[in-house]
Amino acid sequence: MGVATATVRAVNELTARWAGVPEGGTVFSAAGVWPLLAHLADGAAGEARTELAEALGIDAGQAAGAARELLAAMGAMRGLDTALGLWTQRTLELREEWEAGLSADVHGVLTGDRAADHRALDAWTAKRTGGLIDRMPVTLTEDSEMVLASALTMRTQWLSPFTEVPLETAYEPWAAEPRLGLQRSSAVLDRIGVADTPGGHVTELKVLGNNALDVHLLLGEENMKPRQVLEAGVGILAGRYPVVPGPLLPYGDVGPGLRVEKLRNTRPEPPWLEVTTVAYDMNASHDLLKLHRLFGLTTARDRSRGHFPGISGFPLAIGSAEQNTRAKFGASGFEAAAVTAFSAVAGGLPDLRYVTTRISAVFDRPFGFLALHRHTRLVLTAGWVTDPLPCPEYGWEDEGVL
Fold this sequence. Notes:
It is a single chain. The chain is α+β, with helices and mostly antiparallel strands. It folds into 2 domains: 17-154 and 282-346, Antithrombin, subunit I, domain 2 (Antithrombin, Chain I, domain 2, 2-Layer Sandwich); 157-279 and 351-386, Roll (Alpha-1-antitrypsin, domain 1). Helices cover 23% and strands 36% of the residues. It has 8 helices and 19 strands. A hairpin with a 5-residue loop joins strand 8 and strand 9. The two termini are 46 Å apart.
């Protein structure tokens, strides 16, 4: 799709490092942050430039070009919409070279009327995410000189949809309240596999979308932390941890939530994969300045002086950096959106003769997910599921489900 392998690796490694932040259920998008950090690095100087380059994983001099390439590649992916936005005070003069390299979809104006400016930024957010997110995560103050934002929205329909069922689980927090489960069967066994990673074994299920946007579900051993599971998922994508695919798995309990059985039947049947997971709809907000070391913003947030002479001759510092995200996983498909914004401020029994194989994969306790582009393996959103959707009152007994 025209994006360098090194850029994909850099974005995915930022995903893995972000996963190391101790949190509960969450969803986040390093792919939404990385291009903004790259454009900031392009205009930064001194220690701020060095820190941003370290966070990006590439040289600051190459950052803007890599960001443009990444955004163009994502914009060409079916089912994925991206946008970049820039708003400045009328009195702020930008360096022509930096502004020309931004390729912003819109260069708007901050009027100084904070309520009106927030309404305009929120309207942009809602439009760019198709209503999945309705508020731009930015803090405007009387010192706000510039807002740089990105929006990323992905939508895909499963090649093989799930059936909604009440979830049966022994995991106590989920068993206490009926949860909406999803089930499906498939003859394609290589969608499931097990990897031996430094933190323990991880079961990976690939749920394929009809437009090459997929979601990989990741279930680790019960003692593994979310960070270890999500980092393992990124490592699997990078080829660091080989996966033993379904057709090569031995019989028995072969991985977290995974069992391979030999069954007898009255007629010949091919092997099949049975999957049980849960539906979820998650929202999360992230204050990136609380994670300033992770994103290379430690020096850039110092308002006593300017750090971005390549952006403007006016001294600028980072006043706020936030991201709002949402992810919806259901029977027919997946939707996710992320809006990231940086504000810059002045700153300083019968006859069973036949045998077949059944693989059962059950994701009935907290697990991770990576939503990605199949061909480039670029991770677009990632998250940790702790609170699935409740099971609605469908009258399952009447339908013969229970």
